[in-house]
Amino acid sequence: MIRHFSLSDLNAILKIERESFPKSPYDRMTFIHLHSLYPEHFLVYTGTTDGKEDRIWGYIIFSPEGHIISLAVLPPQRKKGIGKELLRKAMETLHLKGLQAEVRRSNLGAQAFYLRMGFRIVGAVPNYYGNEDALIIQWTPSV
């Protein structure tokens, strides 16, 4: 199920963040700030594990202008369509004219995921991640 993030989700989001982005994870205050800026565009994906209550397996944060700030899925839950569902939800946001994100040049898995979802590489930002370039990826809805 996809729903809006609430502050009670923060510890689960921080765990996903640390496991997904060990080189440069966002901290607690960054997520609180992003939630205050984009409450309608900070979504979480929940699932049930072993009959236990809903657990957060992934999240997406994007701006009203269509910039994907972060998208991550808990490593054991990857390749199950969770990232795809979260990204599709963002793509279905009616007022967006498209989506854009930055991806590490070395992150071939993320690049392949976005390309499968209809994104294309439109540029690069040298040293975006300090010691590594970012590729700029973009998706525009078909008319």
Structural summary, described in words:
The chain has 143 residues and is α+β, with helices and mostly antiparallel strands. Helix content is 28%, strand content 30%. The chain has four helices and seven strands; from the N terminus they run E-H-H-E-E-E-H-E-H-E-E. Strands 1-2-3-4 form a four-stranded antiparallel beta sheet, with helices on both faces. A hairpin with a 5-residue loop joins strand 2 (42-48) and strand 3 (54-62). The longest helix is centred in the first third of the chain and has 11 residues, at 10-20.
Structural class: alpha+beta
Q: Kindly state the mean pLDDT as a whole number?
A: 93
Helix content: 25-40%
Whole-angstrom Rg: 15 Å
Strand content: 25-35%
Secondary-structure element series: EHHEEEHEHEE
Strand order, largest beta sheet: 1-2-3-4
Oligomer: single chain
Taking the sheet with the most strands, its summary is:
4 strands, antiparallel
Uncertain spans, ≥5 residues at pLDDT below 50?
none
What is the CA–CA distance across the termini? 28 Å
Keywords:
alpha+beta, 143 residues, 3-stranded antiparallel beta sheet, globular
Architecture blueprint of SSEs:
Blueprint: E1 2-4, H1 10-20, H2 28-37, E2 42-48, E3 54-62, E4 68-73, H3 82-91, E5 99-104, H4 108-116, E6 120-125, E7 134-139
